[in-house]
Design a protein that fits this description.
The chain is globular, with a radius of gyration of 17 Å. The chain has a single domain, classed as Peptidase M41 (Methane Monooxygenase Hydroxylase, Chain G, domain 1), CATH 1.20.58. With 182 residues, it is mainly alpha-helical. The chain has seven helices and three strands, in the order αββαααααβα.
């Protein structure tokens, strides 16, 4: 008897789990409060979602990120780009056989929109250089052993449960990071 080969749907679901896990770990890293992570269909029946809540407007004002053309705003926007790219990076690193060209279209569009705010009047190739640097930072972050362990833990939990509350996801990430550091 021939062993069963994974179907395209199996790859899709596994890839989706790693993709959403990447977003969740990045949100956690940047101190956003996780609200929900799901690999069940959203709207059109395909795709997953990671919902998180960032710092309040008051806190952002205190940090100086609302003022244009400041290093604080550029770093804040760069962090937002990393959170967008983390899904694609995690899926590519941890489940490469599931990657399809269209999977990260919306994340990439959001990243480009944010980069236009970081570099409003670019020199030739400057935005592409910033995007590649932020991809590199995202890969470095998710390759750190505690964060890689957290991506694996969240992805496995999503494959088992399909959806996690923010508290469940936070506990899983925190436990994976804590156990990997100790």
């Amino acid at each position: 008897m021939k062993p069963l080969q994974p179907s395209e749907d199996d790859y899709y679901i596994e890839g989706c789990a790693y993709h959403e896990a990447g977003h969740a770990v990045a949100f956690y890293h940047f101190k956003h409060r996780l609200l929900l992570i799901s690999i069940t269909g959203q709207g059109d029946g395909k795709g997953g979602v990671t919902k998180a809540e960032g710092p309040s407007q008051r806190i952002l004002t205190k940090r100086g990120v609302i003022w244009e053309n400041t290093p604080e705003r550029a770093r804040y926007l760069s962090d937002q780009v990393i959170m967008n790219l983390a899904g694609e990076v995690a899926q590519t690193q941890f489940c490469p056989e599931s990657v399809r060209a269209h999977h990260s279209t919306y994340d990439r569009l959001d990243a480009v929109r944010l980069i236009k705010k970081i570099v409003p009047i670019p020199m030739q190739g400057e935005r592409e250089t910033v995007l590649e640097e932020l991809f590199r930072e995202t890969r470095v972050l998710l390759n750190e052993p505690p964060y890689a362990a957290a991506v694996e833990a969240i992805a496995q939990a999503l494959l088992e449960h399909k959806e996690l509350s923010g508290n469940q996801a936070t506990d899983i990430v925190r436990d994976a990071i804590t156990h990997r550091i100790c």
